[in-house]
Amino acid sequence: MNWDDETASAPEERIVGAAAEGDDQAVEAALRPKDLGEFIGQEKVRQQLDLVLKAARQRGATADHVLLSGAPGLGKTTLSMIIAAEMNAPIRITSGPAIQHAGDLAAILSSLQEGEILFLDEIHRMSRPAEEMLYMAMEDFRVDVIVGKGPGATAIPLDLPPFTLVGATTRAGLLPPPLRDRFGFTAHMEFYEPHELERVVVRSAGLLDVAIDPAGAAEIAGRSRGTPRIANRLLRRVRDYAQVKADGVITREIAGAALGVYEVDSRGLDRLDRAVLEALLKLFGGGPVGLSTLAVAVGEERETVEEVAEPFLVREGLLARTPRGRVATPAAWTHLGLVPPQAAGPAGGSGGAGSGQQGLFGS
Asked: Which portions of the sequence form the region Disordered (predicted)?
């Protein structure tokens, strides 16, 4: 396969990347469900959250603070907007990286209305001073505003209206215990099953006015890496292909051909994923090999391989991280249609790494 160097240098633009950038954000807004009844998947989270919100409405009180954790693209932002809709309250959206000083947070908190939802994305990346201010705001609905500097500085208490903080994080382990403990409801978002993603694809196709049959939806869902955001992105690319190359109807054959153009294979691996596996199998006999060596072989930065490619490969059971280095699993050999060194036949000799590689290349 002919790998494009420009594509290789920009993994953040992968079609199977879970981050939402550019046009994705606008399209996501149009495809988002508006209430819990429309939200697909995450059954336990939906049931638990429904109870929390209904109880709060019956009491006429603000809902408890909510912490949503999980990988990007699973619906944390969507759920925060649903919480606001279910509580019939406005929502304020910001993120941890945008709050670098306690004063930034104080300005946001002091302007909240009673019952308002404050959605704080990537809450684990908030600065420590702001984080400490948030403790008091969540528990006592009060903040101390520091006026002046040095010995003459004074703290002026500022009462806040009751509000609900919805925090979202992809790395819940980085949150300090005092912050985690102040959330009344904590939910972990799981990756979606293929049948759930099929429903997501069918729903999104209806909203986009795209004709799709069940087999076409299943083909897209099976390559979406368990993530609704990726499923919606693949759907739009397949729609384009069906519009230009076919009659506009998405079938299994059309979906497979379209995703082949975008180098997304049957298990959702893209160019970068396959490059990592091929280097590991063909150059290093399946490993173990160090991360830095593997990154050099692929022509990517170490961080790109470790943070962008490896998580999905590990989750799919195609690669293992061991103390000695990265090791390919039997499933990786099968997926790429290669023969492990120890089973390479006479050319593989008695199973050494070097002779195994000769067997691979010899065939």
From this structure: 343-363
